[in-house]
Write a structure and sequence with these properties.
Length: 741
């Protein structure tokens, strides 16, 4: 349907060019029409349907995307510190774009990771680390060698800060020259895309990446689709979940991948609840990624689908569920393309195909799922048509039709009659143009009032003492006690460093998780409510301005009818509300992480000072109270350190929430308000200008000989016939779109 509309735009543009050639002196109106149509075509080409592929770690998200692409493209590592979503866009050829962090960002993450790091070598440190300095790299190697790695194990994996520092050091020599040149973009052609796979799969290189984007041809029509390969929803790192949330803000569809071997776990239900709170549940589709090695038969697969539909019905009645093996779908596609499979993969495929019924079920389900995606994409494009694109095309068509009719009528009159008609129409046109010229200033008054109202609403919500989330954050921090009683503590003063590091890291992770799972969602809900309120208030600002415009347009069209030309004034109304794809609110927990990285030197200094002073007090206490059990002394000192950290964090949170509030105003809501107001003003002026007739070039045609006039009239009749065919097709497209929409 999008292609049909694009074709109609091209046909109408060609008609306008022919019409302009008939009256060379009157090209201004034709140029305005063509600009409207060019903007429509640009809108079509830039439109993206964003599909987030989510699920727990190792559920098969990357394999699913590879199977949809029909190529083994995504090779993600299982690293624990790489917070990055790989985006794959539909395109005519395979290519990749890698975006790198700059040295300031790298050093910020490095110093933030070293806060409270359990190494005595850091206690003498006076300033921040810069990985570009050889002495700093050598010191960091010593720091990593000194710490007790056994104490940095959590959730069966190495501490993320240890891995982060280690990865930065390991990858430095490979990336140093590239970043020293000030380059942060690396574009890879089809024969170089293997470098993308090497970068994202190798932790020591991936830590230097900020973003990775791929463009690839799809084996089925997917123009405008973007697939986002998201981190696992059960990742132990809160920043990963925040990154996924950030991507979901602009998602049109969510594909939730469930491993048939694992099923739905507590982490899944928590994330599904978050999706519902984000108002994304109606846009979710579920894929059960079948393990054909464990599947008894096709009947068992059908029972799995029924089971998960029953479980998911707690969130939504009759959720769309598909069950197939993403790996079988991928390997089968590669085999059909003539790609040489490894003996292991070929063996899997042959084993699965020996159970014809199960394999047939899986592949039929995969085909049904791809059909669902195509239908979803087509329906979204249809909603795009109904949201204004088709209306703009029809407005231009109406203007062209009325212009042709007026030209034809004037070619039958003399110059005097033409001048009279022109004066009558321009007398009616002037009030309309005057109202249009004052539209911007009239709207700006309303915009300024709305900015003041917005400021007050945001300030109330984000007030740290009395707002909606500040007191919640305060209670969490004040009530946090950690698990000091269960913390294993040695009997040496040096054990304090490892203890305070674990206390700090646990507190920071719990706080970030709380901010991500609770505060982010509360803020997002507040943002959505303000967006709805903003559209409602802008409509109220616009309504008093539309009535005079409608009256003036009605009078203008009455004059056109008085000239014997059938015409009806269209309704003057607001356009559909849209916002730029690039304009999205930032998540609070991500802004907090960024703030900590920016202030990493201060955090590093705070940690060093706190540990140094506490160690000094401990050594004195050790000598004075030798009879008291040493672990108890250490535990008491850790409790004091935690209280100091909590006090410091409360101050950080108050400042961060204030900064976030101001950033949300000036980087999101105010630009959004300006955009919405400007787009409404531009749409109104553009539509009305498309209907106003331009008389330039007419008088020259009236002075021609009779046979020349007859020739022009014949050309106009031909243009009118072709335009009528176009309008008939446009009406049919509108009828089809309304049924889908």
């Amino acid at each position: 349907m999008k292609t049909n509309l694009s074709g109609q735009v091209e046909v109408l543009s060609a008609l306008i060019l022919e019409l302009a050639a008939l009256f060379p002196g009157g090209t201004q109106q034709a140029e305005h029409w063509r600009r409207i149509l060019e903007n429509l075509q640009t809108h079509f080409s830039e439109d993206r349907c964003r599909v987030a592929v989510v699920g727990t770690v190792k559920s098969g998200k990357s394999t699913l995307i590879n199977s949809l692409l029909g190529r083994d493209l995504l090779k993600r590592g299982a690293g624990i510190v790489t917070a990055m979503i790989t985006r794959v866009e539909s395109g005519s050829r395979l290519q990749a774009l890698l975006l790198f962090k700059n040295w300031e960002e790298v050093n910020g993450e490095l110093n933030s990771a070293l806060s409270f790091f359990p190494s005595p070598m850091l206690l003498e440190r006076k300033g921040a680390f810069d990985i570009r300095r050889q002495a700093d790299r050598e010191l960091l190697v010593g720091v990593l060698a000194q710490v007790n790695q056994d104490q940095l194990l959590s959730q069966d994996m190495m501490d993320k800060n240890y891995v982060l520092v280690q990865s930065f050091l390991e990858g430095y020599s490979s990336i140093q020259e590239f970043l020293d040149e000030g380059r942060q973009r690396l574009e890879l052609s089809e024969d170089q895309v293997v470098r993308h796979q090497q970068m994202v799969a190798h932790e020591a290189l991936a830590v230097y990446l900020r973003d990775a984007r791929l463009t690839a041809p799809f084996p089925w029509p997917a123009q405008g689709m973007e697939l986002g390969d998201c981190q696992g929803s059960d990742s132990p790192i809160p920043q990963h979940l925040a990154q996924v949330q950030n991507y979901l803000i602009g998602a049109d569809l969510v594909i939730y991948v469930i491993s048939s071997r694992v099923g739905l776990r507590q982490a899944d239900y928590k994330f599904l609840t978050d999706l519902k709170r984000m108002r994304l549940w109606d846009n979710c589709v579920f894929v059960i990624n079948l393990d054909l090695n464990e599947l008894e038969d096709a009947t068992a697969a059908q029972k799995l689908v029924q089971r998960w539909q029953r479980e998911l019905a707690a969130f939504q009645a009759e959720p769309p569920v598909f069950a197939f093996s993403a790996l079988d779908n991928l390997l089968n596609r590669l085999k059909q393309q003539g790609v040489s499979l490894t003996p292991k993969d070929l063996g899997k495929l042959l084993t699965w195909e020996s159970d014809a019924a199960s394999t047939e079920f899986s592949r039929n389900e995969a085909a049904r799922f791809e059909g669902y995606l195509r239908e979803m994409l087509a329906n979204r494009q249809t909603r795009l048509l109904l949201s204004g694109s088709l209306g703009q095309l029809q407005t231009v068509s109406q203007g062209v039709r009325e212009w042709i009719a007026l030209q034809n009528a004037f070619l039958s009159d003399n110059v005097a009659a033409f001048q009279t008609a022109r004066e009558r129409l321009e007398r009616r046109r002037w009030p309309l143009e005057s109202l249009m010229s004052s539209l911007g200033s009239a709207m700006q008054g309303g915009v300024q009032e709305l900015k003041l109202e917005l400021r007050q609403r945001l300030d109330r919500f984000f007030d740290f003492r009395h707002g909606d989330i500040g007191p919640i954050i305060t209670r969490f921090i004040e009530n946090y006690e950690g698990s000091l009683e269960t913390l294993e503590i040695g009997e040496q003063v040096s054990a304090f460093m490892s203890g305070v590091y674990l206390v700090y890291q646990t507190f920071q992770q719990r706080l970030l998780l709380f901010l991500t799972e609770e505060i982010n969602l509360k803020i997002l809900d507040f943002i959505r409510l303000q967006e709805e309120w903003l559209q409602k208030r802008l409509t109220q600002v616009l309504e008093p301005l539309l009535s005079p415009l409608q009256d003036a347009l009605n009078l203008y069209y009455q004059e056109i009818e008085g000239l014997g030309i059938p015409a009806t004034a269209p309704r003057v109304a607001t356009s559909p509300w849209t916002k730029p794809e690039a304009l999205q609110p930032k998540l609070f927990s991500l802004e907090i992480s960024l703030s900590w990285r920016i202030r990493s030197e201060a955090l590093l200094r705070f940690g060093i000072n706190l540990v140094g002073e506490a160690l000094g007090r401990l050594k004195k206490l050790w000598r004075k109270q030798a009879s008291k059990p040493k672990p108890d002394r250490l535990r008491a000192s850790l409790a004091d350190a935690l209280q100091t950290i909590k006090t410091q964090t409360l101050g950080e949170m108050a400042a961060s929430l204030l900064d976030y509030n101001e950033g949300l105003k000036f980087r999101y809501f105010f630009p959004l308000l300006e955009h919405l107001a400007q787009s409404q003003e531009s749409a109104l002026k553009s539509s009305l200008t498309a209907l106003l007739l331009d008389f330039e070039g007419f008088q020259e045609a009236l002075t021609e000989q009779s046979h020349q006039k007859a020739e022009r009239r014949q050309q106009l009749v031909d243009l009118a016939r072709r335009l009528e065919q176009l309008e008939t097709a446009s009406a049919a497209l509108a009828a089809a779109a309304s049924q889908v929409g």
